[in-house]
Design goal:
154 residues, Cytochrome C3, 2 strands
Amino acid sequence: MKRKLILLLLVAGMATIFAATALQAGTEVEDTFEITTPGYDDANRKKGPPQFKPVTFTHKKHIEDYNISCGECHHDENGEPLADLKMGDDVQPCHECHNIFEKDKDNRRDIMVHENAMHGNCRECHKQVNIDAGDPKGRKGPGPTSCNDCHERV
C-alpha cells in the first residue's frame, strides 16, 4: 500500500512540476528586444533598403524607471488598455492585429498599418511626457519624438 501511495505522490509531483513549467514558459518576457515584424523583412520590401534600424525597446526601463503599466501599450480590439495586464501575461505581438505593412494612398493614417500603430502608440505617449515636462507642443523633453531619437540610421 505504501508503494502505491509513494508512486501516486511522485507522479502527482511530476505533473505539478510540468504544469508549472508550461505556465512559466508562456509568460517569459524579454527585457530588451528589437521591434521587428515579418512584414518588413528585406524579401517583402517594395521600396529600397531601409533607412533606419529597428527600434530597441526596453520593458524594464518603461515599467520600472518610467512607471508605465503594461496596459498603456497593450490593448484590446477596441483600443482600450488591458487594465489588469501584468508582466508575464500572454499578449499578442503588435503585428498579429496591425498586419498591414504597406500604406494605402487613400488612407495613409490607417491604424491597422503596423508602422502607424507603432508610431502612434510610442510617439503619442512620448509627446505627452514632454507636454507634462513643460513643452506645450510635446516635441522637446525626455520623451524622444523624432526618427533619429529612436531609430539609428543604417
